[in-house]
Design a protein that fits this description.
The chain is α/β, with parallel strands linked by helices. It is 29% helix and 21% strand. The protein folds into two domains: 1-46, Elongation Factor Tu (Ef-tu), domain 3; 47-269, P-loop containing nucleotide triphosphate hydrolases (Rossmann fold). Keywords: Hydrogen ion transport, Ion transport, Mitochondrion, Transport.
Length: 272
C-alpha cells in the first residue's frame, strides 16, 4: 500500500487498499480517461515530491508540479511524502523562539522552533491573516540573517481553497518580496480529494528538506479540516468502516503522523 500506479491514459494513482480479490486505488487527476479493462502498471515507487532551494518562490500542486506558469523546476532532489517522524533522541527541546512579528502572539503565546500551534476560530475572524502576516514579517528578520541557518523559510499549504484566494495570496507575497523565501503548495477546491489529502504531506516533505539540512522552516496548513473531509470522501469510496460523522477511525492518526514530523533537531543531527 502507498505505491504509485500508472493507468494506460497516463493518469497516476496511489494504492491504498490491498484485499484478496481487489486493490483500492485513488486517482490523482481526472478519471474520465479511465475505462474498464484498462492496463494499470506498478511504478515501483512510493509517492515522492521535489524538494530543495529550487522550490523557493514557486507555486506547486500536491505532486510538486509547478502551476505558476514559470516553467519546470531546476536543480532539486526528491523526497518521500510519507516518512516517520524523528525519534525522541534526534530531537532537542524547544528553546529557540519563532518570531511571528505580531506583538500579541510573541508576548502572550510565544511559538518556539519545533513547536506546533493551532490557530482556531470562527469563519472570517482572521486565522489566515495571522498566518500570512507571519510570512510577511519574516522578510525583515531574514534580511538581517547572516547565514542560511538563521533564515526562516516558509511553506504555505492551501487545502480546498478557491483558486482566486490562492492567486490573491501569491500576489500579496510577491508584492512584498516574500516569495523569495516561500513555497506555496496548492490543492484547490476544484482538485480531486486525493490531492487535497496529499498536499499537507507534500508540503511537509518540502519543509523537512530545510530542517534536515541545518536550516529552519515554518509550515502553515490552511486548513486541516478540509484535508479530513477529503480523507473521509476517499475512505467512504474505498468502503472503509465509518465512525462518528462518517469520518474513518484513523482520522486522528491522519493528522498526528503529519504534525509529529515538526521537530527541532538535536545538535548531533544538524540542529535544523
Amino acid at each position: 500500500a502507498g505505491e504509485m500506479v500508472e493507468f494506460a491514459s497516463g493518469v497516476k494513482g496511489i494504492a491504498l487498499n490491498l484485499e484478496n480479490e481487489n486493490v483500492g486505488i485513488v486517482v490523482f487527476g481526472s478519471d474520465t480517461a479511465i475505462k474498464e479493462g484498462d492496463l494499470v502498471k506498478r511504478t515501483g515507487s512510493i509517492v515522492d515530491v521535489p524538494a530543495g532551494k529550487a522550490m523557493l518562490g514557486r507555486v506547486v500542486d500536491a505532486l510538486g508540479v509547478p502551476i505558476d506558469g514559470r516553467g519546470a523546476l531546476s536543480d532539486h532532489e526528491r523526497r518521500r511524502v510519507e516518512v516517520k517522524a524523528p525519534g525522541i533522541i534526534e530531537r532537542k527541546s524547544v528553546h529557540e523562539p519563532m518570531q511571528t512579528g505580531l506583538k500579541a502572539v510573541d508576548s502572550l503565546v510565544p511559538i518556539g522552533r519545533g513547536q506546533r500551534e493551532l490557530i482556531i476560530g470562527d469563519r472570517q475572524t482572521g486565522k489566515t491573516a495571522i498566518a500570512i502576516d507571519t510570512i510577511l514579517n519574516q522578510k525583515q528578520m531574514n534580511s538581517r540573517a547572516t547565514s542560511e541557518s538563521e533564515t526562516l523559510y516558509c511553506v504555505y499549504v492551501a487545502i480546498g481553497q478557491k483558486r482566486s484566494t490562492v492567486a490573491q495570496l501569491v500576489q500579496i507575497l510577491s508584492e512584498a518580496n516574500a516569495l523569495e523565501y516561500s513555497i506555496l503548495v496548492a490543492a484547490t477546491a476544484s482538485d480531486p480529494a486525493p490531492l487535497q489529502f496529499l498536499a499537507p504531506y507534500s508540503g511537509c516533505a518540502m519543509g523537512e528538506y530545510f530542517r534536515d539540512n541545518g536550516m529552519h522552516a515554518l509550515i502553515i496548513y490552511d486548513d486541516l479540516s478540509k484535508q479530513a473531509v477529503a480523507y473521509r470522501q476517499m475512505s467512504l469510496l474505498l468502503r472503509r468502516p465509518p465512525g462518528r460523522e462518517a469520518f474513518p477511525g484513523d482520522v486522528f492518526y491522519l493528522h498526528s503522523r503529519l504534525l509529529e514530523r515538526a521537530a527541532k533537531r538535536s545538535d548531533q543531527t544538524g540542529a535544523g
